[in-house]
């Protein structure tokens, strides 16, 4: 007998879950998704990480078709403006610094030159992804690892309100059922506490063996019905509100997302084919909704195409994302602000782990515990990486920046920072989302410079290191300039259907 | 004031393979560092110096050094090894071969081993090692280097070397001297520890000289002649691994040269046999509580037909919690002492040497940098210990020695691995892992540990198709091996090329 899976909520998380289960475990489960058209989805135009490509590939989704349907653009990284100090700007690229051929990170050579007072320029100039981004260029990376044009990665910026319907078509074609309506009741077994069924507003009762909570912030099943405690991280990530407002695109189409520091938070700018997403993520302890809305309206570059709307949230995660027979995916399990575009990544990881640890009707605690261990690790590592962005600043121009600059850090993060400052060392882990180049980009982009370098970077005479660095810089610039314009590339590769 | 100048003078203590390998690597990767080797002969309990079987990591170590295999193998009368045959470890189960590298080819939606397990559950009888091309080479006594592109059946295995330690030592010494290491023949009479900061101030040698350095690399084996002068902390692991004695013997080379070694479980331990072109080495590893030294000596003589080389040596299994303290770093058995099962003694030394090169601090040896070195060393050592322990705790032999071994408290990391594997055949990923997933699988399946249930992802394919695909793999593995040269012929050809 297949496991009856009931997915509650039909946003990005719900339909990604339904499509993946229907595609990958057709003999093991039946998928029944319930959603209500009266409940909006949070998706505000999403920026993603490169991992999404593996997810799409596993589901057999064609890239061009997906991009056209969701009016997507390419994303080489994230631009951070005014973070370390007002006037600063850097791009955190998907990809490496240098040519990727050395066994030690390029930033060690860069540090050596910098400490010797050589005119080394910004680290950005040694990254293919950053330079292509700055020039608004894009093409798919080369496969040949020797080529400099293979040293960057990419993700997408797309309209999340179009992604869910796209996945819905796919999921339904593979047998997923959908019921429209609101959930008004959750029935639990008196002994085990497991969820037995949900009751719809229509009176329909839907039974299941495994319930996937994709209900968003409200966390209808895991949070409300099962009462799983929430681990609050707002002392490190004080932003608890966002105001979003899309506008027309009136500048050139950037192949990157921007995160621009604001007086009490930061503002996103996500360019899509048909519009630009904007939003101000702020802390209500430091600014009012009105002031935030006004600041956003002032800042957007194009003509607004919708009224500003406000969202509330708390940074943190549920103690367990899987309790009893209920797995939360996406916002129902936790929230980390979209500073590094991790929302869809976290959805995807939860689905990947759920597929790999997919239970029988009778759920084994071994599977459940392992799922929670893996997901907790993802949340905890991203948390530290986000906190770094706020903490690594010299800004003291507003109470908000003063607070984050001087707050106590989790010890897991302060140790990482000390180690980097000492000799440019990144604590490596093979699993996990942000690897060496990402940490390097943010540290150096926000003015945490190493006081020393890897000893191996000290072997060649400094003149030779300087010459090689200069040659690399020219090579990267030339390769970036040879790439086509981002907007032109999209027109030929995956233009959105007219009036779709 | 901390001394932030780069390290320029290193003293390596220990004139064995480990010491000379450290000297060669330091000179190769950091040529502006002067290296002096205090070349006292290694102690009999330094097993890395005496055991010829090595793991595949040695090939990468040689590659990084620029030491050709022609030199390392052909000129030292050494040979290759693709794995170990384990006999009698799990009651009446047939012998199994632990090889390095891929078992089966990935097909369908998930890992090969999960398909293998599904077929096994359905009554399949082919052992897991049937699907290892290297195990087929081992059974046939044939060898070639891995070759062909991805997808080729011979591309995906790894091999270690079967060294002839005496000649390999001469080679490594000559190579290190060629790279500029200096040799100082003497014994350490006394270690001077500076009163003001606890650093090693210098070594007084038995020839009356005193040597000083910025950094002391202790490769003196378990005695840790220098490092033990700084502190005597030791984490005892005899509660995890039951054997505490090793006795070695050496016989003539066999008529037909195998390409694997054999490890046979005995009533109070285990014995090995490993042949290189120049010799056959034998050893017996046992618990002194269950077998006297004289009985062990007799048993080894009977089984090997060879004379023991020296008396039994005691091994104190465990590790120093801080292998690197102040300006002294312990390498190999000076840092972590393990029994020879799975041949990790020299590997652990190589790994520490690579880590020293990669993490070389300045003269201050700042605690924050050393802590990261020690953290990685600890994770690596504990995971190896767990892998060795796996062999004992999954045995169902009934002798008192084996019953005691099976009753030992299983550390958390291994318990987690076993729990997850037994549930559904998944293996958790661990950082600083020495043995790849397929090595764990080899031993787990070989010892008869089977998951309770088949993985859901495997049932997207009908069992007949899985069986057909596996049958094809088996046939192509068999067809692949028979035209290949024997190990002896292959080495003979290499020698002829070397002479030319």
TrEMBL record, chain A:
It holds the Pfam family Trp_halogenase. L-tryptophan binds at residue 340. FAD binds at residues 10-13, 183, 331, 344. Keywords: FAD, Flavoprotein, Nucleotide-binding. GO terms for molecular function: monooxygenase activity; nucleotide binding. InterPro entries: FAD/NAD-bd_sf (IPR036188), Flavin-dep_Halogenase_NPB (IPR050816), Flavin_halogenase (IPR006905), Trp_halogen (IPR033856). It comes from the Bacteria. 7-chloro-L-tryptophan binds at residue 75. The active site is at residue 75. This is Tryptophan halogenase. It comes from Allosphingosinicella deserti.
């Amino acid at each position: 007998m297949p496991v009856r899976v009931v997915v509650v909520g039909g946003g990005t998380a719900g339909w990604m879950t339904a499509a993946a289960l229907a595609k990958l475990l057709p003999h093991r489960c039946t998928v029944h998704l319930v959603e209500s058209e009266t409940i909006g989805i949070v998706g505000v135009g999403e920026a993603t990480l490169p991992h999404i490509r593996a997810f799409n590939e596993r589901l057999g989704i064609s890239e061009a078709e997906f991009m056209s349907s969701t009016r997507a653009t390419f994303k080489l990284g994230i631009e951070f403006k005014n973070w370390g100090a007002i006037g600063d700007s850097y791009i955190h690229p998907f990809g490496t610094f240098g040519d990727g051929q050395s066994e030690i990170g390029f930033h060690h050579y860069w540090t050596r030159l910098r400490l010797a007072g050589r005119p080394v320029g910004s680290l950005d100039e040694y990254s293919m992804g950053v330079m292509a981004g700055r020039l608004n260029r894009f093409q798919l990376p080369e496969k040949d690892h020797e080529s400099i044009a293979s040293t960057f990665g990419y993700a997408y910026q797309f309209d999340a309100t179009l992604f869910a319907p796209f996945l819905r078509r796919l999921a339904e074609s593979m047998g997923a059922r959908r019921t429209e309506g609101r959930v008004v009741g959750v029935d639990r077994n008196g002994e085990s506490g497991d969820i037995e069924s949900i009751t719809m507003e229509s009176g329909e009762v839907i039974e299941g063996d495994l319930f996937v909570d994709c209900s968003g912030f409200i966390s209808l099943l895991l949070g409300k019905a099962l009462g799983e405690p929430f681990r609050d991280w707002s002392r490190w990530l004080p932003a608890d509100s966002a105001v979003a407002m899309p506008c027309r695109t009136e500048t050139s189409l950037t192949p990157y997302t921007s995160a621009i520091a604001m007086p009490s938070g930061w503002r996103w700018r996500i360019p899509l084919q048909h519009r630009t997403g904007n939003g101000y993520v702020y802390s209500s302890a430091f600014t009012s909704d009105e002031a935030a809305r006004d600041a956003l309206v002032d800042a957007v570059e194009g003509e607004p195409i919708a009224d500003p709307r406000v969202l509330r949230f708390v940074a943190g995660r549920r103690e367990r994302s899987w309790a009893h027979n209920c797995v939360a995916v996406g916002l129902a399990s936790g929230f980390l602000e979209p500073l590094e575009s991790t929302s869809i990544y976290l959805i995807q990881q939860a689905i990947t782990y759920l597929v790999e640890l997919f239970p029988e009707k009778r759920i084994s605690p071994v599977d459940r515990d392992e799922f929670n261990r893996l997901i907790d690790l993802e949340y905890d590592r991203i948390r530290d990486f986000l906190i770094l962005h706020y903490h690594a600043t010299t800004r003291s121009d507003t109470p908000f920046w003063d607070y984050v600059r001087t707050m106590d850090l989790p010890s897991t993060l302060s140790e990482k920072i000390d180690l980097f400052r000492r000799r440019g060392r990144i604590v490596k882990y093979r699993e996990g989302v942000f690897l060496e180049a990402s940490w390097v980009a943010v540290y150096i982009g926000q003015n945490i410079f190493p006081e020393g370098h890897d000893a191996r970077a000290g072997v060649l005479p400094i003149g030779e290191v300087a010459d090689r660095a200069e040659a690399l810089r020219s090579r990267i610039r030339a390769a970036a300039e040879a790439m086509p314009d981002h907007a032109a590339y999209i027109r030929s590769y995956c233009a959105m259907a007219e009036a779709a | 004031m901390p001394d932030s100048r780069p390290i320029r003078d290193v003293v390596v203590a220990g004139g064995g393979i480990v010491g000379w390998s450290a000297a060669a690597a330091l000179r190769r990767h950091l040529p502006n560092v002067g290296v002096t080797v205090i070349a006292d002969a290694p102690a009999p309990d330094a097993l890395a110096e005496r055991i010829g079987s090595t793991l595949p990591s040695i090939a990468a170590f040689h590659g990084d050094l620029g030491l050709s295999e022609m030199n390392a193998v052909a000129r030292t009368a050494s040979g290759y090894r693709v794995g170990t045959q384990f006999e009698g470890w799990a009651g009446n189960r047939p012998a199994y071969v632990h090889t390095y590298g891929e078992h089966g080819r990935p097909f369908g939606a998930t890992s090969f081993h999960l398909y293998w397990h599904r077929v096994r559950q359905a009554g399949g009888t082919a052992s897991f090692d049937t699907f290892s091309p290297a195990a087929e080479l081992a059974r046939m006594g044939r060898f070639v280097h891995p070759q062909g592109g991805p997808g080729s059946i011979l591309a995906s295995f790894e091999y270690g070397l079967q060294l002839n330690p005496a000649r390999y030592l001469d080679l490594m010494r000559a190579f290190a001297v060629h790279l500029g290491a200096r040799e100082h023949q003497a014994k350490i009479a006394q270690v001077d520890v500076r009163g003001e900061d606890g650093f090693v101030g210098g070594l007084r040698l038995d020839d009356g000289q005193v040597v000083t350095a910025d950094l002391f690399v202790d490769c003196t084996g378990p005695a840790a002649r220098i490092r033990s002068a700084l502190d005597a902390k030791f984490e005892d692991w005899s509660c995890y691994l039951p054997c505490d004695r090793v006795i070695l013997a050496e016989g003539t080379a066999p008529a037909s040269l195998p390409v694997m070694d054999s490890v046979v479980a005995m009533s109070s331990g285990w014995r090995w046999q490993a042949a290189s072109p120049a010799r056959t080495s034998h050893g017996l590893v046992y618990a002194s509580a269950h077998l006297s030294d004289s009985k062990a000596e007799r048993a080894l003589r009977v089984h090997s037909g060879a004379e023991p080389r020296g008396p039994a040596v005691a091994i104190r299994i465990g590790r120093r919690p801080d292998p690197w303290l102040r300006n002294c770093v312990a390498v190999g058995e000076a840092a972590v002492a393990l029994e020879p099962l799975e041949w990790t003694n020299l590997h652990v030394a190589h790994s520490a040497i690579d880590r020293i090169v990669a993490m070389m601090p300045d003269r201050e040896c700042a605690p924050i940098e050393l802590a990261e070195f020690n953290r990685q060393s600890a994770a690596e050592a504990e995971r190896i210990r767990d892998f060795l322990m796996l062999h004992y705790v999954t045995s169902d032999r009934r002798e008192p020695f084996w019953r005691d071994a099976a009753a030992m408290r299983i550390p958390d990391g291994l318990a987690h691995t076993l729990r997850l594997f037994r549930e559904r055949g998944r293996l958790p990923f661990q950082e600083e892992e020495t043995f790849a997933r397929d090595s764990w699988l080899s031993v787990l399946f070989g010892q008869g540990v089977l998951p309770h249930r088949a993985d859901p992802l495997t049932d997207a394919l009908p069992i007949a198709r899985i069986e057909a695909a596996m049958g094809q793999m088996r046939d192509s593995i068999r067809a692949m091996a028979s035209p290949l040269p024997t190990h002896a012929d292959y080495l003979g050809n290499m020698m002829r090329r070397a002479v030319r």
